[in-house]
Design brief:
The chain is of the alpha/beta class and about 475 residues long. It contains ten helices and 20 strands. Strands 1-19-18-9-10-11-12 form a seven-stranded mixed sheet. Helix 8 (about 350-355) crosses helix 9.
Length: about 475
């Protein structure tokens, strides 16, 4: 389903002369609660090693995984550690550990240094998989190479997994089957709205990189604010209770790194960023005067580069910050609105998994992270991440109602069914700067559709709506 915002503008221009002009349409109220406190960095200590982070992930997810292991394979098969394995017995057992992918093409700082000295020239790559990639399973003490049905091209480093099989010659484990710690249905039941309520998801505005996005974005702002369409259209717009910007509103790609290192055009990049922030503040002021706004940082926004990204400081948006409806939030972002639990990221984990695996479908990648029970399993291996020592905040312990990833090439969506037929709406939010498209989600039915403001730059024929 696609709705062209130009039609909405046309309705406003074709309003009958006798149409009532004094009708006031009130926006619906909404219940909101932020559950992202676990992503807030209180004491920043970067001196710790990542061993503690992986140990906490394995310890926590093992407790979530064991009930699924018993449900899938029963309680008769013993759960062993790698230290308990004996090659001569070839005992059929279950091992729980963290997967590690040995990839020769994985970027290395040593290779980059060699490249700078022109010792080992290497081509630029966006994908780092190879037919010779191998899987290793690591528990609290040891590691072992995996053979069998679990393909290294379908997983990534950092995924916690239980494997069923036996040790064979050469100290290798032959995998018969495997199980992931997919989150269970929530223990606390929520009450969704009985009438239509909508939220709007937007990502990848790239205000500093493209002037062509201004007019489509202005149409979006006017539509959400209720300035487009007749009274009937405005009543529909009044059912939108919240708008969420899912990252990369200022920039959707990095500046010229080489030029920055040589101090060439560095001032120009800073100037364009400041101008974009001021412009975005003007748009946010119009929005926050009409509707609650959630603002997430993205990979290329002026925020910390490590996950979890901390909220953008409100001093960057002095006009919009005057309204209590502006909520600067973290990335990832976990919240509850009108009885629906919603969680998502600005898209870095999905992009990273696409580069280090052979899963090309972004929607399938999003589903896999849900099944793996982790928002960013490749952190800190290939995604920069804060070295947590006593927790892993990215673990998904319960299924949300909506799970999204921002800054994706196209709009995609489907419904994932978990335990007890619990439905999760998966959404890939497209880059607005190229697709001119946002996503409208109905909180009552969990149905969603794209809404396009103008002609997209990229072909969106690959959109999927299941």
């Amino acid at each position: 389903m696609k709705i062209d915002a130009m039609e909405c503008a046309g309705r406003l221009l074709s309003r009958p002369s006798d149409a009532p002009m004094d009708i006031v349409v009130d926006r619906v109220d909404s219940r909101y609660e932020n559950h992202s406190s676990r992503f807030k960095l209180v004491n920043k200590d970067f001196s710790r090693q990542y061993f503690h982070f992986y140990a906490q992930r394995l310890s926590c997810m093992k407790q979530l995984l064991l009930p699924r292991v018993n449900q899938k394979w029963g309680s008769d098969i013993p759960v062993r550690t790698l230290a308990d394995l004996k090659e001569e017995t070839k005992e059929r057992c279950i091992i729980v550990g963290t997967l590690f992918k040995h990839q020769e093409l994985k970027p290395s700082i040593l290779k980059e240094i060699s490249e700078e000295h022109q010792l080992v020239p290497q081509p630029q790559r966006t994908e780092f998989t190879d037919d010779e990639d191998q899987l290793v399973l690591e528990d609290e003490l040891q590691r072992i190479k995996l053979l069998g049905d679990l393909s290294p091209h379908d997983v990534i480093t950092g995924v916690v997994c239980a494997v069923l099989g036996a040790e064979h010659e050469g100290g290798k484990f032959q995998v018969e089957d495997y199980c992931f710690p997919t989150p269970s249905s929530p223990l606390r039941s929520l009450t969704p709205p009985t009438e239509d309520r909508y939220i709007v998801l937007v990502s990848g505005l790239n205000l500093a990189g493209s002037a062509d996005v201004l007019f489509p974005f202005e149409l979006l702002v006017d539509w959400v604010s209720g300035w487009l369409g007749d009274v009937g259209e405005q009543k529909n717009q009044a059912l939108v209770s919240r708008i969420l910007f899912a990252g990369n509103c200022i920039r959707s790609q990095s500046a010229n790194r080489g030029a920055a290192l040589q101090h060439v055009s560095e001032g120009l990049d800073q100037s364009s960023t400041l101008d974009a922030i001021k412009l975005f503040d003007d748009f946010l002021q119009q929005l926050t005067s009409n509707i609650p706004v959630d603002l997430m940082p993205g990979e290329f926004d002026p925020s910390n580069c490590t996950l979890p990204q901390q909220p953008l400081h409100c001093c960057m948006f002095p006009k919009a910050a005057a309204y209590k409806t502006l909520h600067s939030v973290s990335n990832p972002y976990d919240f509850e609105v009108d009885g629906r639990r919603i969680i998502g990221t600005a898209g870095q984990p999905v992009d990273d998994i696409a580069s280090f695996s052979r899963i090309s479908d972004r929607l399938l990648i999003l589903q896999r992270t849900l099944e793996w029970g982790h928002l960013a399993p490749s952190a800190p291996d290939t995604i920069r991440c804060y070295p947590f020592a006593d927790k892993d905040p990215f673990i998904l312990e319960e299924l949300p109602d909506v799970y999204f990833a921002g800054n994706q090439p196209t709009f995609q969506t489907k419904v994932y069914k978990g335990d007890n037929e619990k439905e999760v709406r998966l959404i890939c939010v497209p880059k607005f700067c190229s697709t001119r498209t946002c996503v409208v989600v109905n909180l009552r039915s969990l149905e969603c559709h794209p809404m396009t403001f103008g002609d997209p730059i990229l072909d969106d024929s690959s959109e999927v709506d299941k």
